[in-house]
Queue: 3 jobs
Job 1
Amino acid sequence: MDEVGCRRKTRRIHLGSVPIGDGAPVVVQSMTNTETRDVEKTVNQIRRLARIGCEVVRVAVKDKEAAHVLSRIREKISLPLVADIHFDYRLALMAIEQGVEGIRINPGNMSGSRIREVVRAAQERGTVIRVGVNAGSLEKSIWVRYGGPCARALVESALSHVKRIEDMGWTQLKISVKSSHVPTMIEAYRMLADATDCPLHLGVTEAGTLLNATVKSAVGMGILLHEGIGDTIRVSITGDPTQEIPVAFGILRTLGLRLVGPEIVACPTCGRCEIDVAGLARKVEKRLLDFKTHLKIAIMGCVVNGPGEAKEADIGIAGGKGRGLLFKRGKVIGKLKEEEMLERLIREVYAMEKEREEKK
Amino acid sequence: MDEVGCRRKTRRIHLGSVPIGDGAPVVVQSMTNTETRDVEKTVNQIRRLARIGCEVVRVAVKDKEAAHVLSRIREKISLPLVADIHFDYRLALMAIEQGVEGIRINPGNMSGSRIREVVRAAQERGTVIRVGVNAGSLEKSIWVRYGGPCARALVESALSHVKRIEDMGWTQLKISVKSSHVPTMIEAYRMLADATDCPLHLGVTEAGTLLNATVKSAVGMGILLHEGIGDTIRVSITGDPTQEIPVAFGILRTLGLRLVGPEIVACPTCGRCEIDVAGLARKVEKRLLDFKTHLKIAIMGCVVNGPGEAKEADIGIAGGKGRGLLFKRGKVIGKLKEEEMLERLIREVYAMEKEREEKK
C-alpha cells in the first residue's frame, strides 16, 4: 500500500495498531448502521467492512445496553473500534472501560465539566479521543454568537475543546468539523490545519444517498487531500456502509495517496465504439471486487484513444470491430475476439498480481 | 439558475445561443453514444439529455455518412451541436457546412496543414472550435520528446494549435487537455489557465463506469472549479450519457456554482436511526428526478444532528421513533407519522417551488 504526496505535518496518534497522521497512509474508516447491542449483526457488518478494506470502524453507543456489549464486539473483530458518544458522559466512561481504541465525543452535546472525567479515563487507558464537531449539533452558545454553523464557528468549538483536553495532558486526539455544506467544510478544515498539529478526520456529513454522497465527498475531501490536509477519512452514505469503502479508496487512488485495488480506465463509448465497452468494464469490475493490488486496466472501444490508453495501462484492451488488441505493459501480447476478452483479462490480472508478489 | 464564486477571467465565446466563459454560468455538456448516422436514435438521446438539463451536446463524426446527417439532427434538437472529428479534416469541413455550432478537433490526429482549411471555413460560418487534446492520442512528436503524456506535453500540444488558429484570426476557441490520470489533468489545466484566456472545457477522460467516473470527475473537476478554473464541463461515464448530467450538476451544486435541482441532505443512518432514512431519501430523489429548482431537503434519522440540519434546510424531517418533525425554513410546521412523510414532503417541495416562481 503506497503512500505518495506532500502531507501536512501532524502529530502521530495510534488507534490500536493503526497509526494516524505524521506521514502514515490516509486511513479509511466507516460506521455501522446496525443496532449496536445486536452483537451478531454488528460484528457481521464490521467483518464485511474489514474484508473490503475498512481500517477503523465506529459504532453508535446510544444507551447502556450498547455500551455493555462493546468488549464482546471488540473480541470478535480485527479492526480498531471507536465508540460514538452523544449527550451522556457516562456512556463514554463505560466505553473506555470496555477497552475501545477510541471514543468520539461531540462538544455540541456534552458539557465541558463532564468531559474532564472522560479525559482522565481515556488517558489512563490510552484511548484516542476524537473531538467531532458537527454543523447540525453545534454548541448553542457558539451557534448564537456566529448566527449559524459557519466555518469559524465549527473551528472555535473544536479548538476550545481540544485545548481543554490538552491542558489536562492528553494529546492522543483527532478532530473533525463536518458540515453538509462543502465550501464550509473545506474552509473549516483549512483553518484547523493552520491552527493545530492534531490529525484531522475528514468528512462531509449527511451527504445523502450513494451518488450524491460520492459527488460531495469526492469534491470536499478531494480538494483538502490534494492540499495535503486529512489523515483519516470517512465517506458518509445513507444506507449500507460497505458502499463507503470503494468510494473512499477511489478518492485516495485518484490523488495517488493510496494505491489499492484495480483502476479501470474505460472510454465513455461514443458513436465510434466497436465493442461492448460498458458491459465488459462492468463485468471486470464485478470480478475484481475483492482484488486489492493496484493495477491500471484499460478497456477502450476504438482506435482514437484506445491504443494510447491501453499502452499506458498495466494491462489493456483496445477494441476494433468485434476484436481487440491486448496490451501488457505497453506491448501487444495478443489479438482477441470480443467473447475471449473477459476471461483473458482476468487471467492476466491475476498473473500480474502473482508476478508482483513474487518480486517483493 | 444562480452563478456564484470567483472565476478566472476568460474571453467569451458563443456556442449558438449558449455563452461560455467571461462570467457565464459553467455549462454542462455531454456526448451521444448512438451511431450518429442513426438520426432517430441520436435525436432521441439528445432530447433525453436536454430534458434533464444538458446544455451542449457532441456527436462522433467518424465517416461521411455521419457528417451528412448533422443538419438533420440539428433541425430536430434545441441544443447547440458539436461535431467530434478525428483524422479526416474533410469531415470537419462537411460538419461546418452542415451548420453545427462547434467542432472538436484533436491536434494529435489531424495534421497542421489541413487544419488551415478547417479554420477558414469555421471563421466564415462562425463555428466554435475546441482544440481537444487527449493523453491517449497525443501527437507522436510531443509524446516522444516528453517521454509520455505529462501535463507539460498536453499543454504544449494544445497551445501550439491554438496559436496557429489565432494567428489565422479566429478566436472563438475553447481548449481541453484530458487525461485519465487526475493529477496530470489538474496540473495541465492549471498551466493552461495561466497561459491563455481561452475558455476551458474540463474533463477527466476514460473515467470508467458510473461510480468510479463520478469519483474521478468530482475530484479532478472539483479541485479546478474551486480554484475558478473551468467554463464548461463534461463528466465522461462509460455507458448511457444521461447518467452524466446529474453528476455534473452535483459537482457544480456542491461548490455553489450552479444551484440547480434538489439537494438532499440525509444522514448515513447509524445505530441511533429510528426511521427508514435511506428508503425515504431514495424515494424522494426518484420523485424529484426532473425537479429543477434548487431546494435543500433534509432527511434525518435521530435527534443528534436531525433538528439542526432540518432547521438549516429549506424543508426537512427530523425523525424520532416512527415519527418526525417537519421543518420549513427553520420552523416546525408539523408532526408526521413515518408513512405520511413522503407525500407531505413532496407536496411541500412543489408548493415551495410555486412560491418562489410567484416571487420572481
Note: The radius of gyration of chain A is 23 Å.
Job 2
Amino acid sequence: MKNVLGREIPERLAERKLRLFEGAFATTPSGRKADRPQKVVKLGENKVLSSIEQAIEKTGLSDGMTISFHHSFRQGDRLVNRVIDTCARMGIKDLRIFPTALFPVHEPLIRHIENGVITRIEGSMNGPVGAFVSQGGKLKDPAVLRSHGGRWRAVEAGDVKIDVAFIGAPQADPYGNANGINGKTPCGPISFSAVDAMYAERTVVVTNDLAPYPVYPFEIQQGWTDYVVVVDEIGDPDSIASGTLKITRSPTRLRIARLAADAVVASGYLKDGFNFQGGAGGISLAATKFVGEEMAKGGVVAGFAMGGGTKLIVDMLHQGTVRTILDGQAFDLAAIASLRDDPNHVLMDPGHYANYDSRGCSTYMLDAAFLGATEVDLDFNVNVNTHSDGLLLHGIGGHQDVASGSKMTVITIPTLRGRLPVIVDRVTTVTTPGEVVDVIVTERGLAVNPKRKDLAERFQGAGLPVRTLEEIKQEAGGFTQPPRKPIFGDEVIALVEWRDGTIIDTVRRVVGWE
Amino acid sequence: MKNVLGREIPERLAERKLRLFEGAFATTPSGRKADRPQKVVKLGENKVLSSIEQAIEKTGLSDGMTISFHHSFRQGDRLVNRVIDTCARMGIKDLRIFPTALFPVHEPLIRHIENGVITRIEGSMNGPVGAFVSQGGKLKDPAVLRSHGGRWRAVEAGDVKIDVAFIGAPQADPYGNANGINGKTPCGPISFSAVDAMYAERTVVVTNDLAPYPVYPFEIQQGWTDYVVVVDEIGDPDSIASGTLKITRSPTRLRIARLAADAVVASGYLKDGFNFQGGAGGISLAATKFVGEEMAKGGVVAGFAMGGGTKLIVDMLHQGTVRTILDGQAFDLAAIASLRDDPNHVLMDPGHYANYDSRGCSTYMLDAAFLGATEVDLDFNVNVNTHSDGLLLHGIGGHQDVASGSKMTVITIPTLRGRLPVIVDRVTTVTTPGEVVDVIVTERGLAVNPKRKDLAERFQGAGLPVRTLEEIKQEAGGFTQPPRKPIFGDEVIALVEWRDGTIIDTVRRVVGWE
C-alpha cells in the first residue's frame, strides 16, 4: 500500500492493522478511548518495595510483556538499563519495550536485543540502538516511532497496551505521588509517564528520594501507582542537557538564526500575545535569543513560550518578555529550578501539549516555532529520523506536533553538513510532511512554502532573501560531495507514525552503501 | 434485600442492578473503568459561544439526557438555575441532573420538577429540594446520594453517564482551560468537575472572565472542553461560606470542641507528621483551632491538613504549624487567596482525595478528622442526610470518605438540638457505618467504639470522661422531648450509596408525622 506521500506502507504490524497517512488533519477519530484497569489499594496497604527485583516479582512481569519508561534523564538515565539487566538476570525474555526515547547511554540494550530479552521496541532511538536496529533482522516486529503527542495518543487509543510502567522519579512519597522537579537529582518534568501510569496494568515508581507524604506537584498520582521502589540512583541530572544547549558560535549558523528571527519579525505574528516554541538546538536557541531581543526592543510581551525549558526562555520570563512558560521537559537545570519556583512556569503533560486525539493541543496556539531537520526535500517534507546514509539515528520528539500546530513553522538548516547536502530531491524518511512546514531558512536565503504566499510577500517586502528551494539546493550543490547512498533491503525495521496514528513512512534495513 | 446493616434495599435502579453494602472495604473491583469519548478539535476551530442557548443547541442537549454541575459557588451559584430555566424555555424535558450538590438557592428547581423538566436527580440536596423530594411522587427514579469520592467513582465506573457537563469557571481561556481560583469572582477549586469534563459526551465551560490563553492552573483542561460560553455572571463568591464558618460561641459546643481536641492530644497521633482534616462546622473549626494551639505549644508540625480550606488552616500553614494543605474546595476567601499564592496550598481533585476505585486516597493518610452528624446511634452509625423528622435535608459531602480513611474519626455532636435527642437507638438513615467511627464526643463526655480499646485506654489514662453511648444517651434523655416521628411510605425517594458504589441505605417518602 502507498500513502498520500507515495511511501510504501505494510498492511499490518503484528495484530494491528495499519492506517495510511492521508494528511496532517485528515483523521477524525470517533468511538471510545481505551479503558483503564479498575484497581484498588485499600486502607493501610503498603506500596514501598526495596528493589527492582521485588517490583518485577510483585507485578508479575514475565515473557512477552510490554514495559515502559520516560526519557527525562536523557543521557543521564540509569533506570532503563538496570531494569532490563534485572529482567535478563531473572530469565525474562521477549519483552517489548516502550520508552519515550532511548539515548546513547542505552547502548547496553543491544546485548539484550541479541540475547532475546528485548524483541520489540516502540519508541525513539537516538544513537546506537537505532543504528543497530537499522542492520535488520534484530527485532521481531518493526520498531514504531511516535511524536510526543503521538505516543500519548497511542496509549489512550489502546494501540499500545502497557503491562508494567517503570517511572523514574526524582522525588516520590510512599503512596506514589511523584515528580521530577524536586528531590536529590531533579530531571525536570516526568509527565511523559502520566499516561503510562494511568493506563498500565501495573505502575511502579522508582525513586532515589522517598520523601514524607504528600509529595507534589502530582505529576504522577498515588491513585495510579501500585508500588514505590527505593533505590540509590535513578539518573544523573548533569547529563540531561546532552550538550545541545549551547547557542551556536558558527558564523553560518548564526546567520541562519538571524535570518529566522528576521522572518518572524517580518511575518506580522510578532505582537503582544505572540506564542512561540523555543527549541533547544544551537540554531533554534540563537534564533530564540534574537527574537527575544526584538521583543524587548519593541516592548512586545509573549503570551507563552513553549518548552523544552531552557535558561534562555526562563530569563525571558523573569525579564517580563514572556508571560508564561508551558513546559513538558527541561533541558537544563535553570529550567528545573524555575519550574519549581515560578508559578508562571507551568508543568504541562504531553497530552495537554500535543495529543491529536484531544479537544485541542497547546501547539495549536503557537504563532511561530523553530525546528531542525536532518534533511528537507523540494516538497518541504522534513526528515529528522534518519540520515542520508539511511540509518535510524533520531526520534521525532515534538517535531510533528509543533510543526502541525504552529501558524509559522520555521525549519532552520545549514545547506551542508560536512560536505553532505541537507536539501535533497526526496527525503530518505518523511517525519513531518511539507504541508505543515512554512519556511525553510538556510544561510543562503529562505524558502517559503508555495501555500504561504502571504508570508513570501511579507518577507519580500521586508527585503529578506526569499528564494526557491531548488535555487538554494542548486547553489549548495556546487560545494557538496554526493552522499554515500544506502542500499536498502526489503525488511521494514521501523514505522514512522504521524501524530494521528497513521503511518507516514517506513524505515528499511540498510544492507550496504553504493 | 437487606444489607449487612439490616437496611432494606431495592434490587434495581432503572437499568442499574444495585449492590448491597457489605462493609467499608468489602468491595474489590476488577475489570475496567468506563471508556471516554474519542473526540478531536482540530487546528483553528473556535470553541467560544456567546450564550447558554447556543451551547444547548451545539451540544444537542435534548429530552432524557443527563447534565452535570459542580457546587463550588454553593449558596452563591447562579448557573444551575439559569441552565435549567433555559432548557425549560427551549422545551427540553425529562432531564436527569447530576450536580455535586444543590443548595437552598436552587429552590426554583422545584418548579422544574413539577413541570417535568427535571425527572431525576443524582446528587446532594441541601435544603428545600430535598425536603420537596421527601414528599414522594416527585421523581421518576429515586435520587442517588454519593460522597465526594463516590461521585467521582461512579463516573469512572460508568454508573452515571453524563451527556453534557456544564462547568462554571471563574476564569477560562478561549480553548477551555479553566480554574476557580482566579478571575473576577473566584469560588475556589472547581476540580469536582474534572471527572465530568473527562467523561461527559460534551463539556461546556461557562465563564464570566474569559482571559488570554493560557489560563492555569489547569483544573479543567482544553483537551476535555468542547465549548466555552461567556456570560456576565456565574456566581456570587461572597455566598460561598454559607454561614458555616464561624467558630462556635456556644459554651456547650466549645466544651465539645475542647474535649475533641483533648482526645486528639491523648490519642498518641499528635506528633510530627500528624495529618488531619479540619472541617468547616462550628464545632470542628473550634476543635481544629484548639488542636492547632496544642501543636504550636508542643512544636509539632503537621504533614498536611486537608481542606475544605478555611482561614484557620491557612493561618496554620503560614505560621508553620502545617507543612501542606491539600484542598479540594474552599470555604472562604482566605483559602482561595492562599490556593492562588502559596505553593504549599495544593489543589487536589476528589479522585485524588477520595476515590475508592483508585490505588489509594489522601483520606487514607489522615490521622484524625472531626466530622458532624444529624444523628448517631448505639452502633456508632452516623446519619448526616436526614433529620429525625425523616426529611432529606443534607448531602454526604466527604463524610464517608474521611471517616473511612482517618485513623481516628471523631464525631462531634451536642446531645440535644433544641429538645431533640441526637443519640438514638437506630439512626433514621445510615450515611456512615459505625465500623469507621472511632470516637463520639459530646458535652457529656466521649464514647469510644468498642473496636478501639487502645484509644479508650489512652483517654482514660489522660483522665478524659470516657462513657458508653448508652450512658450519654440516657443522661441526655432526661432533657429531651420525644421527636416528632415520621410516618414513612413505601416509596424509596433516595438511595444512599457507600463510597464503593454499594447501597448503604435508602430514604423513604415521609407521608406524615405521628
Note: The mean pLDDT of chain B is 96.
Job 3
Amino acid sequence: MNLAARLLGRRRRLLTVLLSQSRPKHFSESRWASINQATSLSRNAMDSVSGSFASLSINPVAHINHPETSSPATWRDALDANASSPNYQLIKTLVFKPKTAKSAAPVPVVVIARDETETNSSALGKHLNLKELRLAAEDLLAEFFHLDKNSLSPLALNQSTFPKVITVLDSSIVSSSSVFAVHALSSNSTIFLSGKDIAAYVKHLESDDHKVQEVDFSTLATSSTVPTATKQAPKEDAKIEGAVQIAIGVKKEVDFPGWYTNVLIKADMLDYYSVSGCYILKPWSYSIWEEITQWFNAHIKELGVQNSYFPMFVSQKVLEREKDHIEGFSPEVAWVTRAGSSDLEEPIAIRPTSETAMYPYYAKWIKSHRDLPLKLNQWNSVVRWEFKNPQPFLRTREFLWQEGHTAFLTKTEADTEVRQILDLYRRVYEELLAVPVIPGVKSEKEKFAGGLYTTTVEGFIPTTGRGIQGATSHCLGQNFSRPEMFNIVVEDPNDPTGQGKTYVWQNSWGLSTRTIGVMVMIHGDNQGLVLPPRVANIQVIVVPCGITARTTDEQRATINNACEDLAKTLKKSGIRAQSDLREGYTPGYKFNDWEQKGVPLRLEIGPNDLTKQQTLAVRRDNGAKQPIGLSDIGANVSALLDTIQNDMFTRAKNNYDACLKVVTRWEDFVPQLDNKCAVVVPWCETEECEDAIKERSAKASEPQDERAPSAGAKSLCIPFDQARWGQIASGQRCIACERDARRFALFGRSY
Amino acid sequence: MNLAARLLGRRRRLLTVLLSQSRPKHFSESRWASINQATSLSRNAMDSVSGSFASLSINPVAHINHPETSSPATWRDALDANASSPNYQLIKTLVFKPKTAKSAAPVPVVVIARDETETNSSALGKHLNLKELRLAAEDLLAEFFHLDKNSLSPLALNQSTFPKVITVLDSSIVSSSSVFAVHALSSNSTIFLSGKDIAAYVKHLESDDHKVQEVDFSTLATSSTVPTATKQAPKEDAKIEGAVQIAIGVKKEVDFPGWYTNVLIKADMLDYYSVSGCYILKPWSYSIWEEITQWFNAHIKELGVQNSYFPMFVSQKVLEREKDHIEGFSPEVAWVTRAGSSDLEEPIAIRPTSETAMYPYYAKWIKSHRDLPLKLNQWNSVVRWEFKNPQPFLRTREFLWQEGHTAFLTKTEADTEVRQILDLYRRVYEELLAVPVIPGVKSEKEKFAGGLYTTTVEGFIPTTGRGIQGATSHCLGQNFSRPEMFNIVVEDPNDPTGQGKTYVWQNSWGLSTRTIGVMVMIHGDNQGLVLPPRVANIQVIVVPCGITARTTDEQRATINNACEDLAKTLKKSGIRAQSDLREGYTPGYKFNDWEQKGVPLRLEIGPNDLTKQQTLAVRRDNGAKQPIGLSDIGANVSALLDTIQNDMFTRAKNNYDACLKVVTRWEDFVPQLDNKCAVVVPWCETEECEDAIKERSAKASEPQDERAPSAGAKSLCIPFDQARWGQIASGQRCIACERDARRFALFGRSY
C-alpha cells in the first residue's frame, strides 16, 4: 500500500530484462555469437575478444547474463543470484587520468585489480612517476572505450585501445588460482576467467615498447604511504588492537547510495542474499521492526482492529478480479507453477497485496449491518518481483509489512478511520523513529490503484533532496464492494422502507519495513548508524575504560563489575542497557563498534570515574560528553535518552523545514529542486498539469526510471495543514498552468 | 521441524495426483473417453453415462478432475481450488436401508438432494411408508453400485441399478436454476450439471411401474416432525429468538473429522480458502497464536536468542545442497518459475524450512569462536505442497511457525539447548494449552532428515486413539557444518597447539500452528470449542439476563450498565473480559454463541443478581454454576480461571494416562491399539524391528498412507522419564523381536 503509488499501471514503463537463454559451462568459438546479446557495439567487441580467446586457447569457466549492475554490491548480488556462477572474486577496472598541461592529451592509466585490493592513487602515481592521478570522468571512458564505468573490464583493452593507455595489472591476480569475474563489455554480462587467462589476454596485446605493468599493490602501499613508525611496531592482531578500519569508508554527502549500503552492512542491520533483490534482516534491524509492530499493534487494537492471517497464495481468477487494481501489480507478480515435480493445473500467485484475496470472504462474512465494522489486520510479507534497482528496505522483492482491511456501514466512519490510521503512521515516524513527515492526501494521479482516495505521510531525505513516501492509508470507497466486484452488501438499517441495501465502505492501509530505511537515511552519519532511543535494541552501552598493562586483575575486576552493575541498574529502570566486557578488544575498538551500530548513549567507567562515583556519558547523535553521578542514574539516563530522542527529531525537523520552499513562480521551481529542496506551490490539482510539471522539471541527463529516484518532480501530497503555508489568494493561478490554484501542494523529486 | 518426521524421504510413498490435463467447458461425445481417466471401472460406467448424455442432449457446464475428496468439506475445497469451477452447489447422494425381515432382500432408498437440504430419515421413512431408514453400510454401496460413498452420485443410477432401488429426488433441484456438482463416479472427478439435466438424466431411467419420487423435503420435515405448537407461533426472526440450531451438529465420538472441522468453522477459528490446502486464520485462532508467540518470544530471549528474518525464497542450488535433507522435502517444494510475464532463469523455491537457506550465512558470519554461540529465530510461514488430505492446522500447504537455528562451539552446549527448548515446547502445551505431552527422543527411523538426533513432545488424541507429534527440537550435530557441506568452522580456542579447528555444533527447532489444532481436538466437546483461559482471547463473557417484555427501559439500562461495569472491573484486574450487550439476541442465543466459541467463563447478571450484588458464574469446561459476590470479583474470577486451567490440564492428563498401557507381550500390542491406546513397551530400538512392528500392527483394511492417521503403529518417542515405567529387567527381550530390550518406548497409531 505504501509502495502502491509507484506501482500504478498507467505509469509503468516496459521492463526489459535480459535473462540468459543458455548457460553453457564451456565455450567454443562458434557459440560466442549466440551468447553475446547485449548491445551491437559490445557484441562486435566481444566477437573480437572471443577471437582472441580462441587463438590464445583461453577457455572461460562460465559466462552468464544478468540484470544490469551499477556497483560492486549489485554486481555481486546479480552473480550470487545465478546458479551458474562458480566461486569467484570480482575484478575492478579503474581508469585514472594524470594531471597534464592543458594542451597535452592525457594518457589514461587503466588499473586491473582484485576488487578488494587497495589501489591507492597517490602511491600508484609516485610509482609510475605521474602527477596527481584522479579517477577519470565518464566522458573519458566513453571517448577511449565506448563504455560506461559499470561495463568496463580488462576486455576493453584491444589492439586499438591498448597502445593509447598505460595498463597496470595487480600482480596478485596473475599468481592466483581463483576464478575472477569480469564484465563482458556490458554491465549485464559476466565472464569468469582464471587469473592466468586474464594476464594472458592482456599481455598478448603487448608490443616491444609498450608493456603491461605488473604492480604489487600491497608493497606499493606500504613503501610509499605508511609512516615508518608503524612499520617498526606492527600490530599483533588488528582486531584486538582496534587498528582495523571500521568506519563507513564512504561519505554520506559524496556517495549517498554507497554510504547507505555500507552503513547497513557495517551496522549489522542486513546482509545480501543469494536470491537477488532479497535481503536478510539481521537482529539489529529486525528488533526495530519488532518495536514498531508492538507499538502499532497496541494502538490498532484500541481501535478495535483484530489480527488474522490469510494465505500467501492467491488464485489467478481471484487476483485478476479488479482490473485497475491488478493492472498496477501484474508485471511483478511471482507465480508458483510447480510443486515437487508436478506442474500445477493453474499457476498460483504469491500475494503482492491482499485486497482481492480477502474481500471474497468479507462478502461471505458480512451478512448484516450487525457484522460491521469489520476490522482485520495482518502482519505478513508480500512479494513484488521488481526487475531493477533493488535497494535494501526501500525496494525489495519480498518485504515485511502490515496490511489493514476494514469495512464500514458509512463513508463517515471510513473517512474517520483513514485519518486515525494515518495519524498512527505519523506517530511511528515522528515519535518512534524521530523522522518528521508531512501528512496529506495524494493527487488523483498518485492515488492507490482501484481506491477512492489515498492519504500519506511524506518524508524527505535532505542529503539527496528527494521526497520519500512513508506509509499510506487508503479509502477504497465502494469500489471493491459494488455488485460487479465483490458484492459486499448489507441491508441498510437506516432506510425507512426496510428495502434499502448498502454496499460497504472499505479502507486499506499499510506500513512496511521501508520505515527502517528512511530512518537510516535521515539520521545516519559518516560514523555509521544513529538510532533513536525509542527503537534501539540497545539504548545504552557501558564500556570499561582506563585498563592498562599495569592494571591489576583485581582493579580490572572492580571496573568490570561496576560496568555490569551499572547495566543491571539501568535495566531495572526499564532501560535497554548492556555492558561490553569483551576481552581482547580496546575501548577504542568498542567505541567504534557501537558508534557504527548507532547505540544512542555510551557510558564509560574507568578508575577515576569509580573514585568519583560517576560515569562519562557520550551521546551518539552529537558526540556531546558529560559526567553523570551514579546515584539516581536510572532517572538521569532515562531523561537523557528522552532528550536525545527529542533532539534527533528537532534536528531532522529543522532540516526538513529548511528544505521546504514556498514557490509561486515557475521560474523558481526547478532551481529549488536543483537546490535539493521540495517546493510548496499553489496548484490546480489536475492530472494533466501534474504530467506537464513532471516533464518540464526533468533533468535531461537523468534516466526516466519511475522506480529510481525520479528526475522529474511529482506531487508528494496536498498537505492537510494548509494554514501553515498561508492562504491561496483569490484569483491565484496554478504554479504551472493557467488554471486557478486550488490548494498548496508539495512537489519534489522523489524515491 | 515438528512436521519433519512425516516428511522423511525414505518413508515416502509415491504421490499419485490426478490433475486434469484438459479443462473443457463444453463436451462432445467423442471427448468423453479422454476425460474419464479415473479407474477402468468408472471409466466404463462413465462411457455409458456420456452416451446417455448425448442422447438426452445434456451438455455439462464443466468437468474437472481434482484430488480425492472424503467429505463435503474437502470436496468443496477441491472445487474451490480449481479455476474452472463455475459457481455451484453440492449434490449429496445418500443411500438408506429400511428395516426388513432378515430373509428379505432390502430395497435401498437413494436420495439425491442439495447438500444443505435436511433429509430427515424418519420423516422420509414415514413418507415412503418404510420402517426405520438407516444410512447403508459401505458394503451395500459396493454391492449395488461398485462405488464407495465418496464417489456416489446420481450418475450411479443406470439401466441396471435403477430398477433395484427407490429413487428420491429433492424437488428443489428440479426447479432450480443453479449449477450442481456431482461426482463423475469417482471422488476425484466432478461434473457440473443444471438441475434440469440431473432430473432429465434420472428420469430417462423411469419405466411405467418404476418412477422417481420427487420430494419437497422442506414441507416433509415440517409436516412430519415439527410439533404443532411451533407451527402456530412461528418465530419472527430465528436469529433473534435464539431458535437457530447453532450446536456443532456432529458428535465428536461418532464422526471425529467432521466434528473437528465443524468446531473450527462454527467457533469462527478458521475459514476455507480458494487455494486448496490453505486456510484463513481468523482472529479467534490467530489470537491464540499471538499468545503463544509472546510467551515463547519472552522465554527464548532470556536464553539469548534473537529474532531475525530471512527471505522466503531459496535458490535451487542452495536448497539442494544437503542430499538427505532435501530428499525429505523435495516432493512438496513449491517453485516460482515466472514473474509478471517473464520466465525466471532458474526456478526459485519457497522455503519448506530454512536450514540450507540460512547456513551459508552462518558460515560467513561465524569467523571466530568469539562469534559463538549464534542463536537466531524467525517467525514466518513455510510451504509444503502436500497433495493429499489437508487438515486445518495439522496438515496445511502453508503454515505459521517459528524456526530457531543455533550454533555452538561444543556438543555439550548444543545438547543443553536442545533440551531447554524442548522444555519450552512442553510448557507451551501443558501450561498454555492445557495439553499433556510426553517428552522424549525420536527413534533413528523417525528423526529429522540430516540431523544427529531429534527430541519431541508427543501428544495423544484419546477420541481417535492416535498419537500426535507436538513439536521437535533437533541437534543437527556437525552434519551441516562439515567442510563438504556449509563449512562452518572456527579455530578451537581450547586446542593447545593453536592449530585445531572445530566445526560448529548446530540445533534447529520449530513450533507451529499445529498446536492450535491439537488443543481443539483435546478439549473441544459436542457444544463446540473449549478454550483454556491462558490462551483465550476473551476469558470471561458477561451476559445480561432476565430481561423480559415487562422490563422497563430503565431496568434494562441498569442491568446493561452493571454488566459493562463488571467487564471493566475485570479488565482492571488484567482479565480479558467483555460484556455482550447486543440488542435483539436472547440470552440463550448468546450462551450458545460463546459456548461454541469456547469462552472459559460466563458471568450472568439479572435483576435478582443485582439485588444480591452477585453474578452467576458458569464454567465452559464442565458446566458448573456458582454465584460469586461482586465484591473482590477480580481476585475471585482470577482464581476461578486458574482453577479451570488446572482442571482442564488434569482432566486431559488423566485421559492421556488412561490410554497409556505398558505391554510386554506382543499378543497384547495390537489389541491395545485397537482399544484406542498407546503402548509403552520394552524395545530394542533397531530400525528393522520398527519396520516389522509397523507391518505387523497394521489393520489390513486401512490404507497405508503415511500422512493419514497411520494404520500401523510407529514409535512416537523413547520417553526421557524412563523411571515412570519401572526398570527394564536384565535379560528382558524386545516386545517384538529376539533382541535385548534397551529402553521403554512409546508406540502408537498416529497422525
Note: The longest strand of chain A covers residues 466-477.
